[in-house]
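ok so for the tutorial part 2 we go from a plain amino acid sequence to predicted structure tokens. step 1 is just haveing the sequence, like this:
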Amino acid sequence: MYLKPLPTPATHVFWDGLRRREFLVPRCNDCGRYGWIPYPACRKCQSENLEWVAVSGRATIYSYTLVHRGAGAFAADVPYAIVAAALVEDPTACVVLANTTGIAPEDLHIGMEVSIAFEDIPGEDITLWRVTS
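step 2 — the prediction. this is what the tokens look like for a chain of 133 residues:
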């Protein structure tokens, strides 16, 4: 049984993008605001005129936490970091959570530049933050 997050009707476009190696987020066609996580209307102007667009995947670490006791399907992955990183396209509205790759969790710091990394794991489509600075 698969116990990690699965696509929902509201997020299937995002997961389809990952399979194509694109990181997609909703953007409002009326005010231009990006938004994460997916929501039925723009959180700035309340317009429902949204579309999924590819973004650069470049971001800055806003916050993070080190996990030493993973829950459920993540228990075997400890220790790991969950990083909240603000996308350069709209840092006040687009803070994305993901794990990291290529760096020890204890070496992370706020303000560090990261970018989306696509990880090939059989049967899964996931993204991770990779340090770029």
